[in-house]
Structures are given as C-alpha cells and as structure tokens.
Amino acid sequence: MEGWTLPPAADDRRETVLDERDVERVLVVTAHPDDVDFGAAGTVATWTDAGVEVVYCICTDGQAGGSDRTVSRTEMAAIRREEQTAAAAAVGVTDVRFLGHMDGELFPTHELRRDISRVIRQVRPQRVLTQSPERWWDRLGASHPDHRAAGDATVDAVYPDARNPFAHTSLLDDEGLEPWVVDEIWLMASPRAEHVVDVTDQFDRKIAALHSHASQVSGHDDLAGFVRGWLVATAAQAGLPEGRLAERFQVVSVG
Ligand SMILES: [Zn+2]
User: Fold this and answer.
1) Residue 19: CB partners within 8 Å, gap ≥ 6?
2) What is the pLDDT of residue 9?
3) How far apart, in whole angstroms, are the C-alpha atoms of residue 76 and residue 8?
4) Model confidence band, residue 12 (pLDDT cutoffs 50, 70, 90)
5) Among the listed residues 29, 57, 253, the one whose alpha carbon sits nearest the alpha carbon of residue 159
6) What residues sit around ligand 1, an ion, with C-beta below 5 angstroms?
7) What is the pLDDT of residues 88-100, one digit of tens each?
8) What is the SS3 assignment for 91?
C-alpha cells in the first residue's frame, strides 16, 4: 500500500502515520451499513491486501434507510446487515459486528462508548478508522448526526475509555477484557483530511462492495462513475499522477 501526505498547512500542523509494518489489526467503527464503503472501502482493501486483519463494528442496523415504505423496519435491519456483510467480504473483511442501536437515534452516550470500548478491547487494534465527529459545513450529508455521534463516541472510547481499567469497570470485572491502547485514529469525511491513499487498484472491489448495498444504491444509474469522479478529484488535489484514484483521511496520533 502506498500513501501520500499533503504538504503541511500554514500553521505547520503535521500528522504522523504509523509505519504500516506496525499495524496488524484495524477496527472500523461507523454509524450505518454502507458508510465504510462510500468513505474507505478502497483503503480497507489495501490493508487486507497487505495481510492486515480488519474488523467492522456498525453501531446501527440502518433501519431508517431506503425509500420502500412496504418494507418493515425490522426487515430492513436484517437486509442491511446482510448487505454490509457481503460488502465487507468484497474487500476481504469477514468479521462484522453490529451493536444494534437505532438508526437516526445515535448519541455519544456512556452506553455507546462502553459498547465500542468492548469491541476495542476484544479486537486490540493499533488503528481505529471512524467518522469525523465534526460538522462539515461544505458537505452536510457527510456529517449526518449519527455519523458525528459514532465518531464522537469512538474517539472517546479510544481515549480515554478503552485504555483505562477504571472506565466501564464491568468490561474488566465481568468480561475479563483488559485495557487496550490504540495508537492512531483515522477519520473519514473530515474537513481536515490531509492523508491520501491511492486506491486505484482497489476501485473495482470498492464498487462491488457498494453494489452489495442494493437497498440503498439500486436507484443509481452510474454509481461507479459517480464514485470515480470523487476519487479522481481527491487524487488530483493531492498531486497524484493523472488516472489515479484516492481516498482521504484525517489521521490523529493518539500516543
Ligand atoms: Zn451513514
């Protein structure tokens, strides 16, 4: 996998990206089925191609998705779990966990932080990829309230909850889950995304993953063309050679 970092901003803020050789496991936490596939499936495929174990944790079942009112919301939850599981398989991910929170009603509560901390302690990832907790005024659709809630709770679960033996004490006392220190957070759909990953070779699998979400994307005439346009623009902004495709992230070193 190759990655490029854009030149430092005027304030000289720099990001540090872990040496890929030090990354054995990555945990991805999102609000809804399909979020990871729009934002990061190409990058996930670069990791699984490199032998990294990637686990998905989806906070809701996406019950509020789709537009067919004849499908019950319980049915929709089952459909979307299946779709996300198939999409994960398209990019080499076989471990998908659902927290079962309600779509449209996600908040960064103590309970959600505990649920995510549990998965962090079970998976023991060096890197966690999630959604930006910031509202992005230029792309409001990307900063859906559930996305911000998932990102906010995940960042809090990474620091300080998962590493603190005295946070969510039942995790250690009743479940035997030892504290775990995550080294790095990657944020999707962030207005501060400066780290760019070339996903040209993974593009077809990203599109296959997106097509797995039939209940959400079947109305799109040219999904591949639409997504390619985004990735071309991201690559061009980062100065990658013409014809390359890229996804971008804000990388936060937790330390
Ligand atoms: Zn979403």
Assistant:
1) none
2) 55
3) 44
4) very low
5) 253
6) 32, 35
7) 999 999 999 999 9
8) coil
Which DSSP string corresponds to 172-207? HHTT--------EEEEES-TT--EEEE-GGGHHHHH
How do 95-101 and 53-60 pair as beta strands? parallel
CA torsion through residues 195, 201, 206, 211, sign? positive
This prediction has a pTM of 0.93
**HSE-up (13 A, CA, CB side) for residue 68:** 14
Q: Give the count of beta carbons closer than 10 Å to the beta carbon of residue 206.
A: 27
Cis peptide bond N-terminal to 160, omega within 30: yes
- Torsions phi, psi of 128, nearest 5? -120, 130
40 CA from centroid of ligand 1 (Å): 13
Beta-carbon-side half-sphere exposure of residue 252 (alpha carbons within 13 Å): 19
| CA of residue 175 to ligand 1 center, whole Å | 30
The answer for residues whose C-beta is within 8 angstroms of residue 247's C-beta and 6 or more apart is 39, 40, 42, 43, 196, 197, 199, 231, 234
What is the pLDDT at residue 222?
A: 95
Residue reference for tokens 């906070």: 59
